[in-house]
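Q: Give me the 3D complex with NAP.
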Amino acid sequence: MNSLPSPHVTPLRGGPILRWGVLAPGAIAQDFVSTMHRNTDQRVHAVASRSTERAAAFAATHGIPRSYGSYDQLVADPDIDVVYVAAPHSEHRALALLAIAAGKHVLIEKPIALNAAEAIEIADAARSAGVFAMEAMWTRYLPQSDVVAQLLHDGTLGDIKLVAVNLGWQFPYDPTSRGFDPALGGGAMLDAGVYSLWFSQFVLGAPSRVVASGILAPTGVDAQAIATLGFDNAAQSTITTSFLISTPGGASIHGTDASIRYDADFVFPAPFVLSSKAGDLTWRDESGLTGRDGLAWEAVALAQLVSDGRTESPVHSLDDSISLMRTIDEVRSQLGAR
Ligand SMILES: NC(=O)c1ccc[n+]([C@@H]2O[C@H](COP(=O)([O-])OP(=O)(O)OC[C@H]3O[C@@H](n4cnc5c(N)ncnc54)[C@H](OP(=O)(O)O)[C@@H]3O)[C@@H](O)[C@H]2O)c1
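A: Here is the predicted complex, encoded as structure tokens.
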């Protein structure tokens, strides 16, 4: 291979435009709305907080026409096409079901829910209502992921035998924070770990065997975990995740003919290297979007899918999210995490 394929992604501008409603204007909502307004034609039409003042302040910052002091009011707004659920994990199920019951399409922050049972409930509700629903696994919509998907599809790597992912984000210990409070869905596995497991699943599908060990925080949630996953086709993956330390965020895929390697930050727009007997080829993101500005890609992808009449993402379906949650359930159960 002399060159890498070009990414096939939904253009950031010029496509169908949805009117978005944002539930829970916290840290990630801030980044999502900023990049969407700066880098795409998508527009947030309303924001809702549990506090009227916080909703109004967020609306003023981002030039959003309507703000509501309750989530129920936003989902009742007939001018909203799609609801973005940006609350802590513990609230995803209830808020997704609220939006779906109001007939809205829904984008739910990762992880889609606290466990597989909740994810199934969301999927069942969305399918019955006929609305679009998707977990915000934004890394899958970055240009780099499409290039990797093409290389996997074309068999460039040969037989894949090993996937290795490490992702630690140091999270200051506070038993009342969403990182460590069991009531808010605390724990590294549900936060950074979902990306590590997603990367493995993206390449190898659902595992047939899981062996995990870890370190629990004083609140009983998992502060660090290592999992070895086995697959029917005799491939393996190793997943490392942590809230105790930060790691570079490397990810690699090793096949009998070639390998793909992200040295760092695979979750974000990042370069990767394809290594084969022919030498190394480096792919670089030339879109100009760096860091969390890359969240814009999932927004335009969703708008296009909705406009096409789809109710699920073909590259990260609700069954994919359920499968991810099943693996997380197994890892957390083996760790004895709350
Ligand atoms: N895609 C990414 O790169 C990325 C990055 C970070 C986080 N996330 C995900 O986004 C979600 C939110 O994370 P975040 O860091 O943005 O959280 P955050 O800032 O702590 O909270 C988000 C907002 O949720 C609302 N909320 C509703 N119920 C709540 C409750 N019981 N306790 C606390 N807040 C509650 C609050 O807004 P109001 O009270 O004003 O309504 C709060 O500001 C998580 O599921 C996380 O996994 C994704």
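A quick observation: The longest helix spans residues 318-335.
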